């Protein structure tokens, strides 16, 4: 190979080396500290940068993104002389590449040591319970101290977190026992509260049931009393009407007997004969052992005959009808007075009371868990006054048509038949 070719190759290689060393490409979110002949020259920004070959060199490349560094557990003594192990996580970002390179030799180690010392100062003034429950306060204090100290290093601390706080095993065992006791205590309290609420609800339900049962028994007693009263009233009215009809029949029978006796004009002999026929009937019965016949029987008959008749030509007393007869009573005079005795229609007030009681019995009863806030008292029944009214007012009954007389043509006074239908006007 000729010397000229060798020189040409050397020149080309040299030119390529110079070109490579003259161009510097920095990626995004990074920067580079450039030194010239050992002194700081500039900070290369992301993009294309030109250097002087063999004079400029890159001292360090700095990552400008936010970095996360987790430090190993650090033993820390609390105010109550308990050693706890605390893991920390620091979020920081390099804001000044020149200060991060020339102000501190290793900013990550510096942040770690500064975090450890600050953490011991902060936790040393707290008890174990405060340390476990005051993580936000510890994080805020650590961030404030670290941000103030690392600002001159070109570092901004964004956030400090306590990843774990581990007390000694003996303390953990005691804490677990305490938490277990607290949980059991809360469970017992909740169980007691549940039983108390259940007992209250049960008592309220029983109270409502007893109130409703008493209300139903009250309504039933009122209805039974009303029914018994009406039954007694109707029974008494029926007995009164029956006695009235019986008395009318007996009166008519007596009138017929008296009329027949007067029409037959009996003599003392006939009366004595009838009297003797009556004696066996009077002597019948288990209690009649001895029967005494009065000795003055003939004189009694004679006096009875003198009262009923007058002596005739043959000396016999015979019945003489009186010349002035009293006017017969009008049979329809007392019909209007006793007409209401045979009225079998239902009292409208009783029907209204029965209807109101049935409506109350069909009314749906509300449950005690829906409206827990209202007092447990039974609602007043608007129909109750109709059932529990006081003394019964006299019932006004309109007399019906003229009663139908019985079919006996010999009875001059008509008797009303309660079973017969009313006559049409």
Topology:
Blueprint lengths: L2 H20 E4 L3 E7 L2 E6 L2 E4 L5 E8 L3 E11 L5 E12 L2 H6 L4 H17 L4 H6 L1 H16 L4 E12 L2 H96 L3 H16 L13 H12 E3 L5 E3 L15 H4 L9 H15 L21 H4 L38
Antiparallel strand pairs: 1-4, 2-3, 2-5, 6-7, 7-8, 9-10
Helix pairs in contact: 3-5, 6-10
What can you see in these coordinates?
The chain is an alpha+beta fold and 425 residues long. The protein has 3 domains: 3-63, SH3 type barrels, CATH 2.30.30; 67-167, Tetrahydropterin Synthase, Chain A, CATH 3.30.479.30; 203-279 and 295-327 and 334-387, no CATH class. Helices cover 50% and strands 16% of the residues. The protein has 11 helices and 10 strands. The strands form 4 sheets. Strands 3-2-5 form a 3-stranded antiparallel sheet. A hairpin with a 5-residue loop joins β6 (67-77) and β7. The longest helix is centred in the middle third of the chain and has 96 residues, at 169-264. The radius of gyration is 66 Å and the shape is rod-shaped.
Helix-strand makeup class: alpha+beta
DSSP strand count: 10
- Give, in order, the helices and strands: HEEEEEEEHHHHEHHHEEHHH
Oligomer: single chain
Shape: rod-shaped
Helix proportion range? 40-55%
- Total number of distinct structural domains: 3
Binned strand content:
15-25%
Low-confidence stretches: 372-422
Mind telling me the C-alpha Rg?
66 Å
Strand order of the largest sheet: 3-2-5
**Biggest sheet descriptor:** 3 strands, antiparallel
Number of helices: 11
- How far the N terminus sits from the C terminus, by CA atoms, comes to 165 Å
Mean pLDDT: 76
């Amino acid at each position: 190979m000729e010397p000229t070719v060798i020189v040409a190759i050397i020149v080309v290689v040299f030119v390529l080396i110079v070109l490579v060393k003259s161009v510097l490409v920095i990626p995004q979110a990074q920067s580079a500290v450039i030194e010239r002949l050992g002194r700081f020259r500039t900070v290369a920004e992301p993009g294309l940068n030109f250097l002087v070959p063999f004079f400029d060199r890159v001292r360090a490349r700095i990552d400008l993104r936010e970095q996360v560094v987790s430090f190993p557990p650090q033993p820390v003594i609390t105010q109550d002389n308990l050693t706890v192990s605390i893991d920390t996580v620091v979020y920081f970002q390099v804001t000044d590449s020149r200060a991060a390179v020339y102000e501190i030799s290793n900013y990550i180690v510096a942040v770690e040591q500064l975090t450890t010392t600050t953490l011991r100062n902060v936790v040393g003034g707290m008890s174990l319970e405060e340390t476990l429950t005051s993580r936000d306060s510890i994080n805020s204090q650590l961030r404030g101290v670290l941000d103030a100290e690392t600002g001159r290093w070109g570092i901004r601390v964004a956030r400090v977190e306590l990843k774990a706080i581990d007390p000694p095993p003996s303390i953990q065992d005691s804490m677990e026992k305490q938490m277990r006791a607290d949980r059991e205590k809360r469970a017992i309290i909740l169980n007691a509260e549940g039983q108390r609420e259940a007992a209250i609800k049960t008592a309220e339900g029983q109270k409502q049931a007893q109130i409703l049962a008493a209300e139903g028994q009250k309504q039933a007693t009122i209805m039974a009393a009303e029914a018994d009263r009406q039954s007694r009233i109707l029974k008494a009215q029926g007995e009164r009407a029956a006695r009235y009809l019986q008395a009318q029949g007996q009166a008519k029978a007596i009138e017929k007997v008296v009329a027949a006796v007067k029409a037959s004009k009996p003599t003392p002999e006939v009366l004595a004969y009838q009297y003797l026929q009556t004696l066996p009937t009077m002597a019948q019965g288990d209690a009649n052992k001895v029967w005494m016949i009065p000795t003055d029987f003939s004189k009694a008959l004679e006096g009875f005959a003198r009262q009923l008749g007058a002596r005739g030509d043959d000396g016999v007393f015979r019945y003489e009808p009186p010349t002035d007869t009293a006017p017969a009573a009008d049979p329809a005079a007392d019909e209007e007075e006793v007409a209401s005795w045979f009225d079998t229609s239902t009292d409208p007030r009783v029907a209204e009371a029965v209807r109101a009681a049935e409506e109350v019995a069909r009314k749906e009863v509300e449950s005690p868990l829906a409206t827990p806030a209202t007092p447990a008292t039974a609602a007043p029944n608007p129909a109750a006054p109709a059932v529990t009214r006081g003394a019964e007012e006299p019932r006004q009954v309109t007399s019906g048509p003229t009663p139908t007389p019985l079919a006996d043509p010999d009875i001059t006074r008509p008797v009303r038949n309660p079973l017969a239908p009313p006559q049409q006007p």
